[in-house]
Amino acid sequence: MKKTILITWWTGYIWSHWVVAFEEAGYKTVIVDNLCNSSVDTLDGIEKIIWYKPDFYNVDLRDKNTLEEVFKKYDFDWVIHFAGLKAVWESCNKPLDYFDNNIVWSLKLFEVMEDFKVKNIIFSSSATVYDSSNFWKWEWVDEKWITWNTTNPYWTTKFILEQILIDLSKFSWFNVMNLRYFNPIWAHESWFLWEDPEWIPNNLMPFIMKVAKWDLGELKVFWNDYDTIDGTWVRDYIDVVDLIDGHLKAYENISEWFNTYNLGVGKWISVLEMIKKTEDIIWKKINYKIESRRKWDLAEVFCDDSKAKNILWWKAKVSLDESIRNSWKFYNK
Ligand code: NAD
Ligand code: UFG
After folding, report:
1. What's the gap in Å between 29 CA and the centre of ligand 1?
2. Which residues line ligand 1 (CB under 6 A)?
3. Which of 15, 156, 174, 256: disulfide with 168, CB 3.0–4.6 Å?
4. Out of 21-30, 123-132, 182-191, 269-278, least confident range
5. pLDDT in tens, 94-149
6. What is the pLDDT of residue 22?
7. What domains are there in the chain, each with its CATH number?
8. What's the pTM value of the predicted model, to 2 decimals?
């Protein structure tokens, strides 16, 4: 019999890809989302790839009773929890909403898991938990670099949820795979799913694509006086396809207690280098201007992937050139 996985917060851009990969790998997926940052149209994209729609429930995690009804219908082996809101700037404007959405509602999910004796969980954390002001220059960040010295409420929610899950693994019986993603980019190779927010995007890659397509006038580069290669912030961009593969490997390697893995490439690129690279690959001019810095931005974050490599046998494979080329195919179609 197929193993059944409950996925929370699924129709977002990363997770719709993920559903496809898990269904293709032979698992049954059941999905809950309140559609606050997504639409059921993603189901049509998924159906075009796998030929059927996975089971979907419009559930708000605040509503514990409805969540329990879903747990009664299935014998879940796993929960994949991609806890909610993720815009750093928004979290600075509405910290209480972020604490409520990301922390309080997650506790409801954990309670129901405990009641139904579902003990395996993959948690979607973030490289946001690393504070680059602590680093030596050009240091690859490994899993022990987490710090409580958070610079924004989004980060605080990830930090606190990680701590809660550590305790649940010690004092309840949860088995936790805590995955910290670096900067995910790109779309599904089928061309039915991709990152194309209708509103003005927050993240760098979709913004660059929208400027290249002339949907937006120019990119604001958030300052250029930092001590990096050209003064602009440096990041480690990971293709969604590699990220999904990392989840499959994590799933196959679940063990007791709480385990954390970085999912990133281990290569860095600055914002100006990314603009230049994109221009060279897609042959389009990217207009930009230097603006003041975002107060929460970290200068440089790039991944030490040795733990995932040595234990999960996982390594990112897709090149940044390929990610950019594929991304442009979508935006240009
Ligand atoms: P997304 O905003 O595209 O998707 C989030 C989904 O959660 C949406 O479908 C939204 O409708 C749903 N949602 C939000 N609050 C909900 C609630 N209370 N009840 C039910 N559904 C709710 O985000 P994404 O890029 O797919 O990211 C998913 C996860 O990955 C988040 O936990 C995010 O913090 C983490 N992450 C993302 C990035 C990134 O750059 N995209 C990087 C690191 C970590
Ligand atoms: N940037 C710009 N202009 C923009 C958007 C971004 O210059 O319009 C720069 C930022 O200053 C940063 C880089 O591009 O240096 C990447 O910025 P993103 O907003 O795309 O990504 P962040 O690294 O700030 O944060 C992202 C996600 C978080 C996640 C984190 C993990 O938004 O949810 O990656 O590292 F936690």
Report:
1. 17
2. 9, 11-15, 33-38, 60-61, 82-86, 101, 105, 124, 126, 181, 183-184, 203
3. 174
4. 182-191
5. 999 999 989 998 999 999 999 999 999 999 999 888 865 655 555 788 998 877 77
6. 79
7. 4-185+237-264 (3.40.50.720)
8. 0.91
Greatest CA separation found in the chain?
57
The closest of 13, 179, 174, 53 to 109, measured between CA atoms, is 174
Q: Is 216 helix (H, G, I), strand (E, B) or coil?
A: coil
The pLDDT score that the predictor gives to residue 28 is: 87
DSSP 213: T
Q: Of the bound ligands, which one is closest to the alpha carbon of residue 301? A: 2
User: Is there a contact between 81 and 124 (Cβ–Cβ < 8 Å)?
Assistant: yes
Task: Tell me the C-alpha to C-alpha distance, in Å, between residue 309 and each of 48, 55, 176.
Answer: 33, 33, 18
Please report the atom of ligand 2 found closest to the CA of residue 207. 8
Mean pLDDT of 242-257: 88
**138 CA from centroid of ligand 2 (Å):** 18
Query: What is the C-alpha end-to-end distance of the chain, expressed in Å?
Result: 40
Helix (H) or strand (E) holding 234: strand 234-235
